[in-house]
Amino acid sequence: MDQRGDQSIEKTVKSEMIYEGRILNLRVETVELPNQKYSKREIVDHSKAVALVVLDKEEIFLVRQYRKAIDDFILEIPAGLVESNEQPRETALREMQEEIGYGSNHLEYLFDAYSSPGFTNEKTSFFFTNDIYEGKKEGDDDEFLEIVKMPFERVIEMIDTGEITDSKTIMGVLYVKKMMDNGQI
Amino acid sequence: MDQRGDQSIEKTVKSEMIYEGRILNLRVETVELPNQKYSKREIVDHSKAVALVVLDKEEIFLVRQYRKAIDDFILEIPAGLVESNEQPRETALREMQEEIGYGSNHLEYLFDAYSSPGFTNEKTSFFFTNDIYEGKKEGDDDEFLEIVKMPFERVIEMIDTGEITDSKTIMGVLYVKKMMDNGQI
Fold it and tell me: Of B42, B67, B73, which is closest to A23 when you measure between CB atoms?
């Protein structure tokens, strides 16, 4: 909690759990605003997540899959939800193996980001690796995805053209581009 | 819809509306997977949003506010939800006025991004402006935020240090940095 004091905090006066599910819960909180008025906050409690920028020399690994929430196929960097018994780094290594069939000798932590703090606490930890080795691909039974490997510079262009529309992919790719431009990779 | 054909699409066999709210709805869909097994998808239908990178010479405008979903204060670029009668560009201009008290003579559209397509269709349209004029600040009654103006280069550092953790802020700022590096600004 921030040290700025209580004056701008929204105090919860009532909390109603609407739904408890597999990857998320929904609750509606009645809060008291700093002006003593009341408002409702619709909040999605979501599992923590990881996302990975994986480079093989000049190429990046993406996965293309159908996402029911947007009723369309979308290109994303490898990602997944942190299981209850895992640390984010373990999740990252597991998802690399499951989604693209590679292991990493050195996985660099980049940063954490809240997906959309106006309504959800979903937080994604970002990792980077360009030190990889081929393993055996053992996908999750319920995941149907296509691995797409392409030049890193092409993905940057695809943000400009609107072909890449996934936030974690845009963040991960632009951050790694910054590292490259700074000579950190 | 993508042209790749039906073979990887998840067909909805049952859809249950759990909650219909102010900024979001929650529905749970039972889907048939490509392997003929069934699974549940927890889906948050969310209002469209906008986010803006607003520069005043070398400085960027951020807003600092309490977000109930993460129970903390967070620094963000100006943003807001698209009302039913609005185009994203109108929302962007309205939010600029409401949140930081500025108008813009030229607002450049950057890109659209899905916040977290694994569970929500929330999509944010990003805009940029460095052509601004001071207006009268007329904030939303229910918003309590502090305007924070700081050197653009400082925000980049704050992504590295973990002081900036909001996805739309990271995306907007890194994208505009790329434009600067390419001489587009």
Answer: B42
